[in-house]
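Hey,

Quick one before I head out. I ran the complex with 4'-deoxy-4'-aminopyridoxal-5'-phosphate overnight. Inputs first:
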Amino acid sequence: MMLDAARLRADFPLLERQEHGRRLVYLDNAATTQKPEAVLSAIADYYRTTNANVHRGAYALAIRATEAYEAARAKLAAFVNAWAPEGVVFTRGTTESINLVAGSYGRAHVGRGDTVVVTAMDHHSNLVPWQILCQERGATLRMVEITEDGRIDLSDFGTALERRPKLVAFPYVSNALGTVNPVAQLAKLAHAVGAVVVVDGAQSTPHLRVDVQALDCDFYALSGHKMLGPMGSGALVAKPELLEAMPPYHGGGEMISRVFDDHSTYNKIPHKFEAGTPNVEAAVGLAAAIGYLEKIGLERIAEHEQALAQAAIEQLTQIDGVTVYGPRGHRAGVVSFTYGDIHPHDIATILDQDGVCIRAGHHCTQPLMRRLNVPATARASFYLYNELGDVAALAGSLVKAGALFGYVPA
Ligand code: PMP
């Protein structure tokens, strides 16, 4: 059953706005989501009632601020079934989380002649940090190919594992194709050859029920701003024993235990990885976002988005000249497409005139675009406040765009 999106939409002040005098049809949720009143007011309330620097204060206000920050950590830990709250390191988002793993775990464990495995559908933020690490260490980066229908090629994945990589990284959900990868299966195969598994959870955490222990990955990166939370919120979720053994990433206040003239000892996890004053506002806002998502239920959200994606694929593929990329059947609420030889940027600009916001470009997946033989795609991505009317608006506007370029609608 679909969600009552019209009712949910009323919780999002920005969605009340118009663009070019038209109802705002926001279909760029894979880039970032809008924020409900519950998140906006949690942030304002924090500053109105609780703000002080955390962890070091001896007065009641600072203790309350610390409690709010740590309660947010516990909430996020429960949300993804983390191994322990200490295994949740707050970061600015997925990109920083993956750089943390590469800079700390990677530098400590990947050396000359070693292999790191990534996939051809990885976002640049789960690719470039590994390129930098491998270049620095004299290690080999092995990219696993994808199948025609946009899935990880399991046979090539198996071949890559024959190199006994130190580390294997892949996305749970592809931001460009909507593919939902079989994470538990991939993690099991990688563990069997002794690799550590890094999962990019930027596009999965907002849209489906995540249980990192059931997935049995080692590191899981997520972004709060893609799940109704504030910009600059996010986390690295990790097995605590791995974090314990890792060297620090950033140096500074809070991450230390004792500081001598020429060396220091370090704080316990997760604080060892949270140097400096943290973004408390982001953590508090993210906790409010999780509260909002939990009230609806991740299972219902996933079902709703799959119905929207299915409707979009059906309607778009009926338009002559439109190609939709990625798997058919089970997939996330991300629909990438091209329309004949119309440049995706032109499509996005024309749709904008109708108040329809979609993304056009390479979606930070240039190796994937090369494999699809396109420079870019247009992408519509859905969330809980989108409804079937938004899909119809997308399709209708696309037909108009096609007519402008001489494509006759089917
Ligand atoms: N991985 C994937 C699959 C993504 O979609 C994104 C965001 N586009 C990222 C990583 C990076 O997330 P952030 O910019 O929040 O760090």
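The two ends are 30 Å apart (CA to CA).

Talk tomorrow,
K.
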